[in-house]
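Table S4 entry, Nucleotide-binding universal stress protein, UspA family.
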Amino acid sequence: MVKDMIVHLDGSERDDIALAHGEALAAQFEARLVGLYTNVFQTRFMPADLGGGTSADIIADILDQARRAGDDTEHRLRQRFELLRSDCELRRVDGSEGDLVQAVAHYARCHDIMIMLRPYGEDRPRWVQLTEAALFAGGRSVYLVPPAMPAPSRLDTVVVAWRDTFESTRAIAEAMPFLKRAASVILAAVEDPEEEGEDAAEGLLEMARHLERHGVQITVRRLPRRGKISEMLLNECQRAAADLLVMGAYGHTRFREWILGGTTRSILSQASLPVLMAH
């Protein structure tokens, strides 16, 4: 069951899209909606020590300006939240990007779903580290929205990208409330030449039987490998006129931090529908 969800807000015009999706999902599940406004302090541009306390004064002034700008944004967001029909509240976190990374991971752990705009696919990447923190350190699902996409009233058709992995299983478990509500769920697996055919097929059918026992209306689709996995999955979503794609979030570590893997990043760059991911 989904009882609460949190939506990431940054004070930009993109917040309206994220909030619209958050409000729509909260209404469908009758869940509490929390807005998390992250006000970043650009500490990487702080001046070096110039002596005589000059740099300290400049830094203090920069931080004060950032807080006051955050106050204006928070006031505007609170006015927007007063118009929401959902049970809702707004929270705010100020700090460096490192501070915000920790805060996002914490709040993701304390809610059933985190809603974010996807980090790729626009003129420049946005909030990549926060997205990675939610996916790889949050422990719950992340609902990632394409830019400028209106919130669907219902998520009737869902495509589930299946691989016999921990990440896929976690994504399916997190997505179960969505799958039970959907009119049609397509369990799609891109065939891997390196996997044994019969074993891979049986694993796919076993997961389909598991979902059926949960009352999910399931259709199995085996997709012969022709090109990139991301393109094949997105083509399947287009063929099915899907409202949601569910998949595991894959990545690898660099300097002890998780970063998105190639297929995951490609999906988040190209998908024209919301993607529910879990790691």
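The chain is about 45% helix and 25% strand.
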